[in-house]
Structures are given as structure tokens and as C-alpha cells.
Amino acid sequence: MSDEEDDYMSDKFLAGLQEVRPSLVNNRAKKRLIEVETKQAENSKRQREIAKTYTVDNVRLQESLNKPITADNKGFQLLAKMGYKAGSGLGKQADARIDPIGFSIKNDRGGLGREAAIAELAAKRQELRLRKAGIQSVDEISTEAYRRRATQKAEERKLSYDLKRCQQTCESLDLAAGVTEPELDFFWPPKPIEPGTETDESESVACEAEPEEEKDEQYSGAEQLELLTSYLRTGYTFCYWCGTHYDSIEDLDSNCPGVTRDEH
């Protein structure tokens, strides 16, 4: 074998097999793979050519629209016969439309109403976000209003956290002191209702016969926290804001900065 002849077991010869036409391949699977790859390459090339053609046509049309209609144009000659003069507007009024209405070529495959649907969807989502934030319209949005709402939400979260921790502390101290029931319902954390617990008919009838007891007054979260911290200070010489159990009332009054969070 001469040096100029190709070795049929070399990588060069095997790589050349991949460029063989599908009609010369005996393996059906490999033949089908070559056909699919060839069609994909042709489709990609065709799409690039179509996109390039659309771009060129759109640019050419926009350039044509920017140019005035010449006197040798058939449409201009027909308008001139009806009294049209170059530079004047069409219609009864002199200040009617002069420039032609612009347009652009649609290159994608989306429906004609898709852009309007997407715009309407975005507006609806914005409306829902504003509704959740308690804003009636976009005009109400401002930096000051946003900061005010953010501060209010942060205060509400902090109040809820402090109230929950204070309820847990009150329950622990009451149970350690032998108290089996909270002084007020909200002094202890709310107990979860176990599923399947139902009252008997006899109990419900007895409850209906008895006069209704006066319900506890309704307090806001800040008022509940104020009553709780006051109860802990007086009953157990414990300051929730300090997180300290003082030895006596005198020790509490002397070393505690105050009764509110701001004073600490």
C-alpha cells in the first residue's frame, strides 16, 4: 500500500462516511437520521432567508412611505383630476391627514389579537397587585405612600410576634404559679380545636336555657399587648421588653426603663 492511498481503517475514512448520501446507506436507522438532519438544516436555512427577506422588505416599504408621491404616479394623477394639490390634505377640511398611515410587516406566527391580550393581561395583573396593596388606582402610588404602607405592615408583623411571645410567657408564668385559667381569653395562646369534638344536645339545651354571659370586650392587638405586659409587670414583676424577672416591684421600678417598647 502506497503512502498516497487512504487507509480504510483510518479516522479520515470513517469521518467521510458521515457525508455519504442517504441513498447510499444500507442501515435504515442511519439513513433516517441523515434525512432528518438534512431537513433540519434546510428548514433553518429557509427560515433565515425568510426573516432576512421580511426585514429588507419592511425597510424598503418604510423608505418608500417617507418619500412623497411623484407626479407621474397613477394615484397622484387620479387625485389631481379630483382637485388634489401636492402638500394639501385629503378630505373636506384643509388640515386633514397629509402623511400616509404607517404600517409594519408581521414576522411572527402569533394571532392578530395576541398583543392586545397580553397588554390586557398585564393591566389585569397590575390591578390585582394594587388591590392587594389597598390602592384604588395607579394615581395613588407614590414613594411616600409606599413607605407608609411598608412601615405599617412591618409594625403589624412586629405586633403579632410580640403578642404571641407575650401570651406564651404569660401562660408559662400562670401555670408555674398554679393558675389553671387565663385572666382574660387572649392572655394565653389560642388553643387549637381538635377535630371530632362535638357538644351533646343536652349541653346545648342547657346553654340555651341559661342567660348569655357577657362577652369580653374586644381589644385591638396593641391594647391586648398593653394589658398583657401590665399584667406581667404587676403579677410577676416581669418585664417583657427587658426579658427580665425582677426581684421586687422596687427593683422593677428602679431598673426597668419603662412600660413600652419605645422606652427600651
TrEMBL record:
The ranges of region (Disordered) come to: 190-221
Q: Name one GO molecular function term.
A: nucleic acid binding
Q: Which Pfam families match?
A: DUF4187, G-patch
Under PROSITE patterns, the record lists: G_PATCH
Q: Which GO terms describe its cellular component?
A: kinetochore
G-patch domain span: 71-117
Q: Compositional bias (Acidic residues) at which positions?
A: 197-216
Q: Tell me its family.
A: Belongs to the GPATCH11 family.
In Swiss-Prot or TrEMBL terms, this protein is called: G patch domain-containing protein 11
Query: What organism is the protein native to?
Result: Drosophila hydei
Q: Which gene encodes it?
A: LOC111603392
